[in-house]
Amino acid sequence: MDDSGSSSLDNLQTEEKIFLAARKVFIQKGFEGASTADIAKEAGVNKALLNYYYRSKENLFLKVLHKCVVELWEKSFSILAQPIDLFEKIKLFVNQTTETYLSDYQTLNFILYETSKWDNKMIDMFKDELENKFLPELDLFYKQVEEEIQKGTIKPVDPFSLLLDIISLVLLPITHGQIIIRLNTYQNITDHYTFLRNRTNNIINTILCQLKQDC
Amino acid sequence: MDDSGSSSLDNLQTEEKIFLAARKVFIQKGFEGASTADIAKEAGVNKALLNYYYRSKENLFLKVLHKCVVELWEKSFSILAQPIDLFEKIKLFVNQTTETYLSDYQTLNFILYETSKWDNKMIDMFKDELENKFLPELDLFYKQVEEEIQKGTIKPVDPFSLLLDIISLVLLPITHGQIIIRLNTYQNITDHYTFLRNRTNNIINTILCQLKQDC
DNA sequence: GTCTATAGGCGGATAGAC
DNA sequence: GTCTATCCGCCTATAGAC
User: Residue A115's closest CA among A79, A66, A82, A151?
Assistant: First the structure.
């Protein structure tokens, strides 16, 4: 019953060391820019072990990307399906997503760039999550928005367009902060992070302003 | 006075054929993913000619990226510096930028991804444009917003934050449309382009709603 | 499971003929 | 200016010793 023999534990450690190193290198350099030698060096193991555990660079890459996307969903988008007040939910999503990816914009950039090249192989890889988790959870959000509209709590809006507004306002300044910050001559920014953290209030106002009846 | 000898014309043609091919391939595959062989094949010329005209792959790439960024500015961001009414300007920017890059999202994606890796070499390449064109033009926009606030025409907002709102709402759904469209179970979209074109009105409303006094 | 050694291909760049 | 031929390094993947 106990399969945690020392040999098995060692395997897991090496396998995971490779995975974590691959994750780091792929995020920094992208699929094309990363080499298996880079990853092996980062993991402190021999290059051949990558193929032993993961068969090919592409397979390792897909596993890393899959993990990143699932984590992005868990840490951030899952909030949208929780049974809480719509306004509170939007505030929570904006604040939490900003907090999560502000200090780790490269991971977000990696996910968005690599998935923008989606082919059938990648789509298949996410088929399960899309059908059984991502899309059903979003549907809960769409339904909640429709209910609030019917109750007259908020102005009539297109739920998908609302979602797009929220995602856009939160994500783009994070993913492309390196460029965008150079366009800010309006004020001297000592810390871009601090600026974007404070901006969450602006984003929430912008969103809620188009929803609230008395705005 | 006439320096358009046939030999000079031929040179320009080949040089430009390479440039246009490089542009196409870099945009499709990115810097790392593109090979000089790809580019030569696309241009219908010999691989060695790339080095004859452009010295190295990196140099060719930087010239392509530079052209793309300048064109992005000319076609889209320059609007922000024109002497027109603020509300009309925002409408024009949203509609024109959407129209320009909806049918060419890969170019936008290319610019944003490659510049997100900015190092000192890239920054130097844009030093001139940043100092003498991009930033001064943006300053005109910031000033216009401030003037409208002082006149009481619009509610007090942070001009840079307003710019970020506009950019984010317009660009992210275009650059990452391939993924985002998969999250839309709310409505059956026959044509993503049509959807995003119609959405410009939503975006304009969202922006103007936070500006107008009577909203 | 982990290593060394190496296969085999593709990358960018260049020399030299025409 | 344009081509062919080639150098040389780096890449991924694998065979085989331990």
Answer: A66
Nearest-CA distance from A132 to chain B in Å? 13
Q: Which two three-digit tokens encode residue B183? A: 């999250």
Tokens of B83: 């002497």
CA A122, A124, A128: angle at the middle one, nearest 5?
A: 120
Count the Cβ atoms, other than its own, within 10 Å of residue A119.
7
Task: Report residue B5's pLDDT band, with 50, 70 and 90 as the boundaries.
Answer: very low
* CA distances in angstroms from B21 to A164, B104, B110, B138, listed in the order given: 34, 16, 15, 32
Bridge partners (DSSP) listed for residue A154: A212
Q: Is B116 in Cβ contact with A179 (below 8 Å)?
A: yes
Over chain A (215 residues), the average pLDDT of each successive run of 10 is: 45 92 98 98 98 98 98 98 98 97 94 88 90 96 98 96 97 90 76 88 94 86
User: How far apart (Å, rounded) are the C-alpha atoms in residues B3 and A125?
Assistant: 58
- List helix spans (H) across B103-158: 105-115, 120-125, 127-129, 135-151
| CATH code for the structural domain at A64-211 | 1.10.357.10
Strand partners, B212: B154
Residue B184 is predicted with a pLDDT of: 86
* Residue whose structure tokens are 């974590």: A20
Residues of chain A with CATH 1.10.10.60: 1-55
Sequence-ordered list of residues with C-beta below 8 angstroms from that of A154, at least 6 positions apart, any chain: A86, A145, A148, A211, A212, A213
Spell out the residues 6+ positions from residue B36 whose beta carbon is closer than 8 angstroms to its own.
B47, B50, B57
Q: Taking CB atoms and an 8 Å limit, are B113 and A118 in contact across chains?
A: no
Domain with CATH 1.10.357.10 in chain A: 64-211
**Overall pTM > 0.90:** yes
Q: Cα A187 vs. chain centroid, distance in angstroms?
A: 29
Name residues 51-70 of chain A with a Cβ under 7 Å from nucleic strand D.
51, 55-58
- CA-wise closest residue to A112 among A175, A29, A20: A175
Quote the strand ranges of A20-83, DSSP E.
none
Q: Is B185 an interface residue toward A (CB < 8 Å)?
A: yes
Which residues of B fall within a CB distance of 8 Å from A134? 183
Q: Does domain B1-55 have CATH number 1.10.10.60?
A: yes
